[in-house]
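User: Just a sanity check before I run the rest of the batch. Below are the structure tokens for the first item. I only need the designed sequence back.
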């Protein structure tokens, strides 16, 4: 099968936002027996969309589009599609009801009705009506229209589009019983190291490999004959055991939640440089109230002292960016919250505030356990948000490794030191 990817949006053409959907989709398909021969980006112009859809339909077996499904005047994809193939548009009652139930569209009837219009023969990809996106089988071709929001695009592509593309009559190579797709999520692993290790082992005639970063994690996809994929998977797991977050396509915050829930453990957080991002990652998972007790954002030295109880001597003598402050923040949060574990972060996310001794990217992460307290000194690189994200994910991974493997497995690429104190 051969197909094309079509990305629609003036903001993409103008470079106002990066086309992360194109990068994601290309890397997904690189590991599968589905050939993407053309990737296009076009503006929100109705006639241009119509002409492009007609041409791609004549040349390819499937088309995947992104963008133009929203309620605004420049969201023209559905209208252009109906004109391109003379398809009538019909209001989907269930979709309209779901849109009306959202607070975002209460009192915006015209917008809601526009979004509920689907071409005849279209099938919604999300049966729970959480996001727009539909599948249109047309004259033995497969057309997919996905939202431009990256999280929604990526979810629907992997969970709905790929399985539907398997249903191709006599060409079921992707879904053949003797072939499987295996996915892994890694953290604190250099993609180059992973690629080098697998290239030394891989029989390229039997297994296809796809890598793509989902910052700050890395995803690996293996596709091929079942026996070969399972054999290579086992070698990857053995080699990168500490870095393997999941073999079920689950991100670190989901995995740590399951670990805590299964063991009946609770956690608290005390944050400075991450500003609540660590707590946000934990609580973004449904059911996190079962294991997340509370969080403190203590940005200033005064708040660390007044809210958490970090000693003035530690703050003045050791400094707010230090092993000792990270340890005390974690210990105080654990004591106040009466939890099994607590995590803390303090550091310099930048772009200002760094010194020669403590440059931007310096972060101390604390972990308080029932028996001891640890602090880790890291040096992360990147923009402010990247540093905050890396610090938050690293804190979660420190907890994951401690619970699963013990304190003997703390080894990180960006680490500059570790201190431990018994309780």
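Assistant: Here's the designed sequence for the first item:
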């Amino acid at each position: 099968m051969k197909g094309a990817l079509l990305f629609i949006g003036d903001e993409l053409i103008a470079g106002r936002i990066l086309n992360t959907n194109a990068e994601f989709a290309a890397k997904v398909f690189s590991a599968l027996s589905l050939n993407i021969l053309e990737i296009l980006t076009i503006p929100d112009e109705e006639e241009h969309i119509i002409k492009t859809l007609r041409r791609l339909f004549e040349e390819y077996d499937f088309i995947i589009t992104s963008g133009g499904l929203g309620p605004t005047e420049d969201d023209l994809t559905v209208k252009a599609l109906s004109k391109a193939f003379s398809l009538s548009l019909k209001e989907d009652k269930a979709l309209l009801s779901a849109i009306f139930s959202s607070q975002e569209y209460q009192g915006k009837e015209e917008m809601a009705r526009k979004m509920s219009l689907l071409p005849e023969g279209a099938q919604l990809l999300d049966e729970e009506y959480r996001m727009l996106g539909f599948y249109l089988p047309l004259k033995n071709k497969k057309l997919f229209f996905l939202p431009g929001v990256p999280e929604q695009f990526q979810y629907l592509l992997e969970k709905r589009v790929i399985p539907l593309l398997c249903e191709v009559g006599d060409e079921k190579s992707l879904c053949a019983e003797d072939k499987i797709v295996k996915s892994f999520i890694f953290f604190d692993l250099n993609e180059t190291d992973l690629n080098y290790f697998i290239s030394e082992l891989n029989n390229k005639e039997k297994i296809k490999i796809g890598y793509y970063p989902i910052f700050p994690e890395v995803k690996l996809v293996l596709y091929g004959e079942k026996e070969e994929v399972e054999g290579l998977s086992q070698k990857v797991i053995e080699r990168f055991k500490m870095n393997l977050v999941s073999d079920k396509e689950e991100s670190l915050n989901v995995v740590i939640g399951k670990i805590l829930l299964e063991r009946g453990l609770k956690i608290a957080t005390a944050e400075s440089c991450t500003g609540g991002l660590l707590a946000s990652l934990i609580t973004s998972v449904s059911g996190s109230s079962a294991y997340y007790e509370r969080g403190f954002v203590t940005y200033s030295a005064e708040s660390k002292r007044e809210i958490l109880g970090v000693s003035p001597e530690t703050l003045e003598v050791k400094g707010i960016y230090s092993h000792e402050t990270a340890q005390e923040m974690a210990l105080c949060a654990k004591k106040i919250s009466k939890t099994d574990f607590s995590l803390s972060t303090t550091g310099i996310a930048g772009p200002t505030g760094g010194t020669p001794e403590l440059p931007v990217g310096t972060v101390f992460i604390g972990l308080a356990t029932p028996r001891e307290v640890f602090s880790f000194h890291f040096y992360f690189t990147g923009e402010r948000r990247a540093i905050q994200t890396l610090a938050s994910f690293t804190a979660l991974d420190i907890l994951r490794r401690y619970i699963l493997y013990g304190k003997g497995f703390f080894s990180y690429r960006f680490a500059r030191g570790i201190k431990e104190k018994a309780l």
